[in-house]
Design goal:
With about 110 residues, the chain is an alpha/beta fold. The protein is about 35% helix and about 15% strand. The protein has a single domain, classed as 3-Layer(aba) Sandwich (Rossmann fold). The chain is globular and about 45 Å long.
Length: about 110
């Protein structure tokens, strides 16, 4: 399993997989993985050729008084589970990578 942090790295690897005729499965998460997440990854593994999982604790999902900094994070445990499940690519961006200064929503339709 490869671990990447930058959106461009995900795009490059997924693009390469597509060029090689592989189907892509994507499981977005906020980490703190449990059996529900594992079930989704197993399903993606069974139905697609290349499985991508993201772990991103989105600060925009936390309101005033909700403690973003206390949300459980254990990337070592999560990545070990994903390795065992056969995940191909783990994407772990920072909020700065997802919400780049000056960046607007971008949509690419193929």
């Amino acid at each position: 399993m490869e671990i990447v942090k930058k959106p461009l790295d995900v795009s490059t690897r997924v693009g390469s997989a597509r060029l090689n005729g592989r189907t892509i499965g994507f499981v977005p998460t906020m980490g703190a993985l449990h059996e529900g997440h594992a079930s989704l990854v197993r399903m993606a593994r069974n139905q697609t050729d290349y499985v991508v999982v993201s772990i991103f604790v989105n600060p925009k999902q936390f309101g005033p008084g909700e403690d973003f900094n206390r949300y459980p994070r254990n990337i070592e445990k999560d990545s070990e589970l994903l390795r065992k499940l056969g995940c191909d690519l783990l994407f772990t961006p920072s909020p700065e990578d997802v919400y780049s200064p000056g960046e607007r929503t971008r949509v690419l339709v193929r």
